[in-house]
Amino acid sequence: MTVQIQAARQGERPSGAEAAGDAVVSFVNVQKTYDAERLVVRNLNLDIRRGEFLTMLGPSGSGKTTTLMMLAGFEPATHGEILLNGRPINRVPPDRRGIGMVFQNYALFPHMTVAENLAFPLQVRSVPKADIERRVRDALAMVELGGFGTRLPAQLSGGQQQRVAVARALIFEPEVVLMDEPLGALDKQLREQMQYEIKRLHERLGVTIVYVTHDQSEALTMSDRIAVFNSGEIQQLSTPSVLYEQPTSSFVAQFIGENNRLSGTVEQCEGSGQCVVRLDGGQPVRASAVGTLSAGQSTLLSIRPERVQFNPDPADSALSILEAEIDDLVYLGDHIRIRLLIPSQEPFVVKLPNNGSWEPLHKGSRTSVGWMAKDCRALDHARSGPAHA
Predict the structure, then answer these.
(1) Which residue, 37, 146, 20, is CA-closest to 89?
(2) Residues of 331-351 as b/e, b for ≥16 C-beta within 10 angstroms?
(3) Backbone angles phi, psi at 315, to 5 degrees
(4) Is there a single domain that holds both residue 40 and residue 186?
(5) Which end of the chain has fewer CB within 10 Å, C or N?
(6) Total domain count for the chain?
(7) Are 191 and 42 in a shared domain?
(8) Angstrom distance (rounded) from CA 382 to CA 296
(9) What span, in angstroms and rounded, lies between the C-alpha atoms of 13 and 16?
(10) Is residue 77 situated within a structural domain?
């Protein structure tokens, strides 16, 4: 069935400059479809604050890159408005938006030297030659490539090419810089180094950066806020610590970091924000309720492996304790990853610090796990739509 692009409904955000507020970029009821059959981006409302580092994170096909391309001007929005400093830019061509762009493949001109690559965006803006030379020199110093101006891109390492690409995006002093998976082609060690360098430049220059990645650790390391995309919608928009510690849906809990899931039914909700859940295997446990759960409702419990206590004191009444069987042990140096089997549940993982006490453990051993209710979140099993923090 053909997708009908809906006009702004009553109660949604207003269009035009009134919607932008103090944001440098605003998406107002933005939708995107390529074939009039399926929405790639659905009713997107997002304000990006001036000077922040905002990451769009999600799996392939979630809509994050399409959103970035609409902001850059390389893809038109099917419906809605995109605002820059309160002014609509839907019909403004990419080269007139004043937005810097860094691509995964660097997109450097191979026949130009490093200095010529950096000078190009200034030349097309008719910047005086003396100013160009000064700004190229300053840009090279900024990314610690002062002696590389006469080299061709092919004479640089991958990390050096990416530094040049970042410098080129910054050299004309844009208010907003977009980065589309810029570190995806680098090896692990270099990628981690570049994460630090890009974050350092952001903090020093105060420019607004909109960053796209599917790498959750990269997003957690670099961002002021993270927008988690799935099926064309933002599932949660929060700081890295809130996303990790307080996911509002099972998708976010599973996508951000490692996560254990236990299925069950809510038996009782308390005014303290905690609830009692009867697991599918019959065991009652306590958890923190997320949203408006009620008795009789299906739920998924979310708990991080590092928050689980292994073989806890059975007399500790503050813990919910489950019996389990060891299915596998993996030695990872600083910790041991233990995979457990719990009746009627998915495999359950515990991270045990390597203090030498794990050696008597073996596959098939019986043990137990426990947790505090505050460390376990009861999520609405049926909820799949967007939730904003």
Answers:
(1) 20
(2) eeeebbebebebeebeebbbb
(3) -85, 0
(4) yes
(5) N
(6) 2
(7) yes
(8) 13
(9) 10
(10) yes
Q: What is the span of the domain harbouring residue 72?
A: 5-98+174-250
For the domain that residue 272 is a member of, what is the CATH number?
Answer: 2.40.50.140
Two tokens, residue 77:
């929005």
Q: Reduce the DSSP state of residue 235 to 3 states and report it.
A: strand
The answer to whether residues 354 and 267 touch, using CB atoms and an 8 Å cutoff, is no
pTM above threshold 0.90: no
84/14 same-domain check: yes
How far is the C-alpha of 106 from the C-alpha of 183, rounded, in Å?
9
Please check whether residue 15 is in contact with residue 68, taking contact to mean a CB–CB distance below 8 angstroms: no
> What would the pLDDT profile of 300-334 be if each residue is shown by its tens digit?
999 999 999 999 999 999 999 999 999 999 989 98
Residue type, position 45, single letter: N
Please tell me whether residues 197 and 73 are part of one structural domain.
yes
Residue-wise pLDDT for 14-64, tens only, equals 333 344 448 999 999 999 999 988 999 999 999 999 999 999 999 999 999
Would residue 302 count as lying in a domain?
yes
Using CA atoms, how far apart are residues 94 and 256, in angstroms rounded to an integer? 33
Do residues 80 and 216 share a domain? yes
Question: Where do we find the tokens 């630090």?
Answer: 196
Cβ burial, residue 85 (10 Å; 0-12/13-18/19+): middle
